[in-house]
Protein backbone atom coordinates (compact mmCIF):
# COMPACT_ATOMS: atom_id res chain seq x y z
CA UNK A 1 0.00 0.00 0.00
CA UNK A 2 1.28 3.42 -0.88
CA UNK A 3 0.33 6.61 0.89
CA UNK A 4 -0.46 9.96 -0.62
CA UNK A 5 1.07 13.08 0.79
CA UNK A 6 -1.44 15.68 1.85
CA UNK A 7 -0.20 19.20 1.27
CA UNK A 8 -1.74 21.89 3.43
CA UNK A 9 -1.79 25.31 1.75
CA UNK A 10 0.15 28.13 3.38
CA UNK A 11 -3.13 30.01 3.94
CA UNK A 12 -4.74 27.05 5.75
CA UNK A 13 -4.46 28.71 9.19
CA UNK A 14 -7.27 31.03 8.05
CA UNK A 15 -9.46 27.94 7.73
CA UNK A 16 -8.49 26.86 11.23
CA UNK A 17 -9.26 30.34 12.53
CA UNK A 18 -12.73 30.25 10.99
CA UNK A 19 -13.43 26.78 12.39
CA UNK A 20 -12.19 27.89 15.82
CA UNK A 21 -15.15 30.29 15.92
CA UNK A 22 -17.62 27.37 15.86
CA UNK A 23 -17.20 26.45 19.57
CA UNK A 24 -17.71 30.12 20.49
CA UNK A 25 -20.95 30.08 18.54
CA UNK A 26 -22.00 27.02 20.54
CA UNK A 27 -21.15 28.78 23.82
CA UNK A 28 -23.09 31.88 22.76
CA UNK A 29 -26.12 29.76 21.90
CA UNK A 30 -25.88 27.72 25.11
CA UNK A 31 -25.82 30.92 27.18
CA UNK A 32 -28.79 32.26 25.20
CA UNK A 33 -30.73 29.06 25.89
CA UNK A 34 -29.74 29.08 29.57
CA UNK A 35 -30.97 32.63 30.05
CA UNK A 36 -34.22 31.87 28.26
CA UNK A 37 -34.69 28.69 30.31
CA UNK A 38 -34.25 30.66 33.54
CA UNK A 39 -36.63 33.43 32.44
CA UNK A 40 -39.27 30.86 31.47
CA UNK A 41 -38.78 28.70 34.57
CA UNK A 42 -38.42 25.54 32.51
CA UNK A 43 -36.72 22.92 34.72
CA UNK A 44 -34.02 20.50 33.63
CA UNK A 45 -34.09 18.01 31.97
CA UNK A 46 -36.99 19.36 29.89
CA UNK A 47 -35.67 20.05 26.40
CA UNK A 48 -38.65 22.22 25.46
CA UNK A 49 -41.65 23.83 27.10
CA UNK A 50 -44.89 21.99 26.43
CA UNK A 51 -46.90 23.42 23.52
CA UNK A 52 -49.66 24.68 25.82
CA UNK A 53 -47.13 26.32 28.16
CA UNK A 54 -45.38 27.99 25.22
CA UNK A 55 -48.71 29.25 23.87
CA UNK A 56 -49.54 30.82 27.23
CA UNK A 57 -46.10 32.25 28.05
CA UNK A 58 -43.96 34.51 25.86
CA UNK A 59 -40.90 33.52 27.93
CA UNK A 60 -41.57 29.83 27.31
CA UNK A 61 -41.97 30.49 23.59
CA UNK A 62 -38.67 32.41 23.55
CA UNK A 63 -37.04 29.49 25.34
CA UNK A 64 -38.39 27.01 22.79
CA UNK A 65 -37.18 29.16 19.92
CA UNK A 66 -33.71 29.69 21.43
CA UNK A 67 -33.46 25.96 22.14
CA UNK A 68 -34.48 25.13 18.57
CA UNK A 69 -31.90 27.55 17.14
CA UNK A 70 -29.21 25.86 19.20
CA UNK A 71 -30.39 22.34 18.33
CA UNK A 72 -30.54 23.21 14.64
CA UNK A 73 -26.95 24.43 14.79
CA UNK A 74 -25.83 21.26 16.55
CA UNK A 75 -27.47 19.25 13.76
CA UNK A 76 -25.50 21.03 11.04
CA UNK A 77 -22.17 21.93 12.64
CA UNK A 78 -20.41 18.56 11.97
CA UNK A 79 -21.12 18.90 8.24
CA UNK A 80 -20.00 22.52 8.15
CA UNK A 81 -16.78 21.78 10.06
CA UNK A 82 -15.96 18.89 7.74
CA UNK A 83 -16.72 20.76 4.53
CA UNK A 84 -14.83 23.87 5.67
CA UNK A 85 -11.73 21.83 6.54
CA UNK A 86 -11.90 19.74 3.35
CA UNK A 87 -12.61 22.60 0.95
CA UNK A 88 -9.88 24.59 2.70
CA UNK A 89 -7.29 22.19 1.29
CA UNK A 90 -7.94 23.63 -2.16
CA UNK A 91 -9.62 26.96 -1.44
CA UNK A 92 -8.36 28.13 1.96
CA UNK A 93 -9.34 31.81 1.85
CA UNK A 94 -12.69 31.10 0.24
CA UNK A 95 -13.48 28.31 2.70
CA UNK A 96 -12.45 30.41 5.68
CA UNK A 97 -14.67 33.20 4.41
CA UNK A 98 -17.64 30.87 3.96
CA UNK A 99 -17.05 29.37 7.41
CA UNK A 100 -16.98 32.83 8.97
CA UNK A 101 -20.08 33.82 7.02
CA UNK A 102 -21.83 30.71 8.30
CA UNK A 103 -20.99 31.63 11.91
CA UNK A 104 -22.17 35.21 11.42
CA UNK A 105 -25.37 33.96 9.81
CA UNK A 106 -25.97 31.54 12.69
CA UNK A 107 -25.58 34.41 15.17
CA UNK A 108 -28.22 36.45 13.34
CA UNK A 109 -30.40 33.34 13.02
CA UNK A 110 -30.16 32.76 16.77
CA UNK A 111 -30.81 36.38 17.68
CA UNK A 112 -33.87 36.47 15.46
CA UNK A 113 -35.25 33.10 16.52
CA UNK A 114 -34.68 33.78 20.23
CA UNK A 115 -37.13 36.69 20.08
CA UNK A 116 -39.90 34.11 20.16
CA UNK A 117 -41.00 34.89 16.61
CA UNK A 118 -39.79 31.99 14.43
CA UNK A 119 -40.08 34.10 11.26
CA UNK A 120 -37.27 36.34 12.53
CA UNK A 121 -34.81 33.45 12.22
CA UNK A 122 -34.61 34.29 8.51
CA UNK A 123 -32.32 37.24 9.26
CA UNK A 124 -29.43 34.81 9.00
CA UNK A 125 -30.67 33.04 5.86
CA UNK A 126 -27.31 33.41 4.13
CA UNK A 127 -25.77 30.85 6.48
CA UNK A 128 -27.69 28.23 4.49
CA UNK A 129 -26.10 29.49 1.30
CA UNK A 130 -22.64 29.33 2.90
CA UNK A 131 -23.34 25.75 4.00
CA UNK A 132 -24.39 24.67 0.51
CA UNK A 133 -21.44 26.44 -1.11
CA UNK A 134 -19.04 24.74 1.32
CA UNK A 135 -20.58 21.35 0.49
CA UNK A 136 -20.02 22.02 -3.20
CA UNK A 137 -16.46 23.23 -2.68
CA UNK A 138 -15.67 20.20 -0.52
CA UNK A 139 -17.10 17.84 -3.13
CA UNK A 140 -15.10 19.55 -5.86
CA UNK A 141 -11.95 19.33 -3.72
CA UNK A 142 -12.50 15.60 -3.19
CA UNK A 143 -13.12 15.03 -6.91
CA UNK A 144 -10.02 17.04 -7.83
CA UNK A 145 -7.85 15.14 -5.35
CA UNK A 146 -9.23 11.80 -6.56
CA UNK A 147 -8.67 12.67 -10.22
CA UNK A 148 -5.06 13.55 -9.40
CA UNK A 149 -4.57 9.90 -8.42
CA UNK A 150 -5.71 8.58 -11.80
Sequence-ordered SSE layout with sheet pairings:
Elements (H helix, E strand, L loop, with lengths): L11 H29 L10 H6 L1 H30 L4 H22 L12 H22 L3
GO molecular function: glutathione peroxidase activity; glutathione transferase activity; leukotriene-C4 synthase activity
Catalytic activity: 15-deoxy-Delta(12,14)-prostaglandin J2 + glutathione = 15-deoxy-Delta(12,14)-prostaglandin J2-S-(R)-glutathione; leukotriene C4 = leukotriene A4 + glutathione
Membrane topology: Multi-pass membrane protein
CATH third-level topology: Four Helix Bundle (Hemerythrin (Met), subunit A)
Order of helices and strands: HHHHH
DSSP summary, beta strand count: 0
Integer tally of domains: 1
Termini Cα gap? 16 Å
Structural class: mainly alpha
CATH class: Mainly Alpha
Alpha-carbon Rg, integer: 19 Å
Percent helix:
over 70%
* Assigned CATH architecture: Up-down Bundle
Low-confidence stretches: none
The CATH superfamily appears as Membrane associated eicosanoid/glutathione metabolism-like domain
Amino acid sequence: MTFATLAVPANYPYVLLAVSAFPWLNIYQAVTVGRARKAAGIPYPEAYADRTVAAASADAMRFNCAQRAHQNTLESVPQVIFTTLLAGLKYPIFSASMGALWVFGRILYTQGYATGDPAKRNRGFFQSIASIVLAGAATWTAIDMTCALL
